[in-house]
Specification:
signal, Flavocytochrome C3, Chain A, domain 2, membrane, oxidoreductase activity, mainly alpha, about 475 residues, Multihaem_cyt_sf
Length: about 475
Amino acid sequence: MPIGEGNDVTWYAEQARQAGLLPPWSLSIVLPIVLAVFLLVDSIGPLGAQAASGNARFEGVATCAGSTCHGRAEGNGEVVRQDEIASWQEPSSATGAHSRAYAAIASPRGKKIAADLGLGAATSASACLGCHATYVAPASQGPRFQTSDGVGCETCHGAASGWIASHYAVPATHTSNIANGLVPLERPQVAAKVCLDCHLGSSDTGQFVSHSMMAAGHPRVAFELDLFTALQQHYDIDADYVARKGRPSSVRMWAVGQAEAVRRSTDLFAQDKFGTNGVFPEYYFYDCHSCHRAIQDGPQANRTFETNPGRPIPFGLAPYNDENIIMLSAVSRALVPGRAAAFDAASKDFHRAMGQGRSQAAAAAQKLRGEAGALSDALAQRSYAGDDAFTVVAAIAGTVTGPRFTDYAGSSQAVMAVDTLLNAMVREGRITVGAAAGIRANINRAYAAVRTPETYRPAQFRSALGQAASAIGTLR
């Protein structure tokens, strides 16, 4: 991504379209928020089941790249595409960003960030390699393993030594492969936990982006499971896929991703080693733009923020970044109404505790974590019907959730959700391509309202989001 294009939402959409991830009628499914997963030209490098269990060994990308395996130039395999390596290495779009993650920290910007932080060489610093490579101890590396491969196959799919020789052979099944160590990424909770390790953070080495890192130039971190999965998709959902893994639901994937993001964020915040930085709080957890906004010093006080009805915090206190909390509140009312009140109460208690003290905030975070976990389980286990996406879109832009879009991060997450769910409706045959194209202008107005943090205006965004949701509702 050339410098200067990073705030242009249409650039990201074009990358996704070129990769075949978006239908041609969609102007933009990808937000400026996706900057959170890029460092200069490439991805921050996600995901992270990076510690080998038992005697498992990471064999390296080269062991997957044979022409009879996943290394074909064209995706014409009978069972799987067999051009997965080519997709992973795609040089010009987000599809190949994982393979470029190591190169990102070797870039001038990556080197400068490491130098400013006093880390030494970024390509050997654990703080960088934890997410910009498949970072494992030498004893767990096979003979063809290379750290410089970046975020390789096994970062997501698991250490391959237990299943690589048998996963394609008769009578191997998907179930037997999982038993041998393959990570079942078709399960939303599993996928979310793997992705979140780097796309939000974990307690493992090198998998937490502190505010200091962002001050040095690292992008802001954000997460949306269904979109991020689509950007990296290197498989076809055909009859064979469905027979082995079941038919995926974008609504389930998105909703579980929101729940797991809240669970992970609050879990990390509750731990003092992550939630605090000396006498200061760890600002990573807070809404960036609550502080990073224009300040005017004049005789007339012009307030540059709106009071958020979902945050009972002392006036003027920097708020927790609650973009995923807002989304989970909406989806709980839409799809798991029996748990919605408890989650909203825990959410408000958490915000309230932020103004009381560290111990109170940590305890409230753990309570909110538990509610998010219960919602994750419920959302993962429920059945999904054709109207669910419509119901969720209406809830996001409705009278309860809509007023909570007072900040850029939450608003970006909202329009990303609405467009993700709209594309899911088309992909799953709920509405036609032509019908979706007919309301594209409404979606684009919502995108325009969050094109950059500098031009974001809450009231303008809420109006645009409401119009977009109403337009989608007419297709129901």
